[in-house]
Amino acid sequence: MAEKPAKLRSRDWFDNLERMDMTALYLERFMNYGITPEELRSGKPIIGIAQSGSDLSPCNRIHLELAKRTRDGIRDAGGIPIEFPVHPIFENCRRPTAALDRNLLYLGLVELLNGYPIDGVVLTTGCDKTTPSQIMAASTVDIPAIVLSGGPMLDGWHEGELVGSGTVIWRSRRLLAAGEINEDEFLARACDSAPSAGHCNSMGTASTMNAVAEALGLSLTGCAAIPAPYRERGQYAYRTGRRIVEMVHEDLRPSRILDREAFLNAIATVSVIGGSSNAQPHIMAMARHAGVDLELDVWQHHGYDLPLLVNMQPAGKYLGERFHRAGGVPAAMWELLQAGKLHGDCLTCTGKSLAENLAGHESTDREMILRFDEPLQESAGFMTLRGNLFDFGILKTSVISEEFRQRYLNRPGQENVFESRAIVFDGSDDYHHRINDPSLAIDENCILVIRGSGVIGWPGSAEVVNMQPPDALIRRGIEWLPTLGDGRQSGTSDSPSILNVSPESAVGGGLSWLRTGDTIRVDLNARTCDALVDEAEIARRRAEDPIPPVPDSQTPWEELYREKTGQLGEGGVMNFALKYRGTSRKLPR
Ligand code: FES
Ligand code: MG
C-alpha cells in the first residue's frame, strides 16, 4: 500500500486545534444521529456515498439498498461513511429533457465534495447521465473517487421474445404505425421490458456509460454489467466500499487515472459493444473536465475501424443478463487488448493496470461476445462527418440495417453516396404534426431533418433525431429513412441518423438556412454531408431569413444553462467551469 497522504482534508474540519470553536460546531450536528466525536476525530477517512437513487430516479433506486453494503465495506476497511443525495436524474420522464440535469448534478456535486469534510467518494451510477455528471464533478474536485454501477434490470420477455428497454418502444412504434399491433399491446410490450429494479437492460446510454466508467478505470473490474438484482451487485457494493478507503490512503485521485489513453480505451470499448451515440458528448465532457483534449474526429480515428463484438440490442439480439454471464465489459475489453487496441498500462482504481485487471477475462459465450477476428460486423464504430451544414456530426454505424445499406450505400456508380430531398422540421412537435401530411410527398428519396433540438434550441438537446418515416411508407415496408438533426437520439434506438450536429440551428448553424426541398448529399467515403445550395444563395438566405425561433426558457436553470453551455460536439459542457479543475488542492475557506 502506498504512503498515506500527509493529511486528510476532513481533519481540517474535525481536528483543527487552532479553531476549536469551529471544530465543535462542525462535529456537534453529525452526532445527533448517533455518530460519536471519537469516530469523527479518529483520523479515519470520511467517505462520501453520493446517493443517486430515489423514487424520482427509479433506474438508480437499487442504490438505496446497495449503500448498506457499501457502508459495510467502508467500515470494515477503516473508513467512516457519510451518505448524501445528489440531484436526481430520470432519463425517460424528465421534461423537457434529462440532458439539462447532467450539468446541474455536476454543479451540485462539485459544491458538496468541495464544501464538506469528505476525503473520498463512491459515485453511485446507473441511468444515463448519472454516470458522466458524477465523474465530471469528481474530476473538478479531484478527490479519490470510485464508481459503483447499479446495474441493468433483468432481461425483459414478452410472449417468448426478448424485449429490451427503449428498443421495444422504437420497434413497437413502427408496428403500431403499420397497423400490426394496437395500443394495449404496445403498453404490454413496454411494461414487460422492465421486469425488475435496475437501469435499461439494452445497450442504451446507461449500460454504455457504466461500461465507459469501467473502461476508464474508475470502477472495479466487472462492475458495470452485473444486473441490479443479482447477488454480485451487493458483493461489488461491499468491495467498492472497501476499495475507496484504500484509494484515499493511496491518494489515488481521478487526475492520476483519467489521461488521454484512458479516454481512448473508453472510445474503443463503446465501439465494440455497440454503445450509445450519447457517449460522444459525455466522453468529451468528462475528458474536458479531466483536462484531456480530444479532437472532434477522435471517434473516427479511434473507434470507427473497430468491429462490433457484443450481440446486444439495439445493434444485436440479447440483453444485459446474458452479457453479464458472458463476461460483461472485461470480456469485451479482453478482445480489444489481445488485438492490441487498448492501452493496457493505464492505471485504474484497483491500483493495478488495466491489462492486469483484464487477465483471465476471456468470454466462453461466443454468441454473445464474439472474437475480435470473427465479429458481428467489421468497421462498426462511429463515423464523424462535416460539410456546409455543420462542422461536426456523428453516425453510429453498428445499427444500420443490411437493407438500409443496400438501398443507400451501394447504389450503382455512386458507391457510398446518396442524395436525398430534405424534409425539414422545426422541433419534434412540428415533426409529429406534419410527418403524415400527404402534401410533403415523403418517399424513399427523402431525408428527414430536425432542427431546434440542440443544446440551446431545445434547451438541453433532445433525443428526437430517430424520426420514423410516415405511416404510409412503413406500411409499404420502408422502416427507415436517413435522418439528420442537431439533437441526439436514444442509445436504445436502431435508427441510421446523423446527429449531435454542431453548431446547431439555434446558434446559426447550417441547418438554420436549410429548406424543405433542398437536396442533401451524403458521401460516406469522404465523410461529408452538404446541402447542394450555392454560396450566394446561402448568403442570401442568411441575410433575409431569421434563425428559426426556439421556445422561451421556462425555468431559471434553463435560462442559465442556455447562457453557459457549449455545443454537443464539444461535450455540451459549461466552458467556464473547466478552469476549476483540482479544487481539493486548496481547502475552502
Ligand atoms: Fe434510466 Fe434508461 S431510462 S436507464
Ligand atoms: Mg437515453
Q: How would the blueprint of this fold be written?
A:
Elements: H1 11-14, H2 20-28, H3 37-40, E1 46-51, H4 62-76, E2 80-85, H5 99-115, E3 120-125, H6 130-141, E4 145-149, E5 157-158, E6 161-162, H7 167-177, H8 183-192, H9 205-216, H10 231-250, H11 254-257, H12 260-273, H13 279-289, H14 298-303, H15 320-325, H16 328-338, H17 354-358, E7 382-385, E8 392-396, H18 402-409, E9 417-426, H19 427-434, E10 446-451, H20 471-475, E11 483-485, E12 497-502, E13 519-523, E14 528-531, H21 535-544, H22 556-564
Parallel strand pairs: 1-2, 1-3, 3-4, 9-10, 10-11, 11-12
Antiparallel strand pairs: 5-6, 7-8, 8-12, 9-13, 13-14
Helix pairs in contact: 4-10, 5-6, 6-9, 6-13, 7-8, 9-12, 12-13, 12-16
Helical content class: 25-40%
Small molecules bound: FE2/S2 (inorganic) cluster, magnesium ion
Strand order of the largest sheet: 7-8-12-11-10-9-13-14
Shape: globular
Ends distance: 32 Å
* SS strand fraction: 5-15%
Organism: Croceibacterium selenioxidans
Protein name: Dihydroxy-acid dehydratase family protein
Family: Belongs to the IlvD/Edd family.
Keywords: Iron, Iron-sulfur, Lyase, Metal-binding
Provide the descriptors you would attach to this structure in a database record.
589 residues, alpha/beta, eight-stranded mixed sheet, four-stranded parallel sheet, 22 helices, 36% helix, 12% strand, globular, binds FE2/S2 (inorganic) cluster, binds magnesium ion, iron-sulfur, iron, ILV_EDD_N, lyase, metal-binding
Word description of this protein:
It is a single chain. The chain is α/β, with parallel strands linked by helices. The chain has 22 helices and 14 strands. Strands 7-8-12-11-10-9-13-14 form an 8-stranded mixed β-sheet. It has a 4-stranded parallel β-sheet with strand order 2-1-3-4, sandwiched between helices. The chain has a two-stranded antiparallel sheet with strand order 5-6. The longest helix has 20 residues, at 231-250. Bound molecules: FE2/S2 (inorganic) cluster (FES) and magnesium ion. FE2/S2 (inorganic) cluster binds at residues 59, 91-92, 127-128, 165, 199-200, 204, 206. Residues 91, 128, 204-205, 463, 490-491 line the site of magnesium ion.
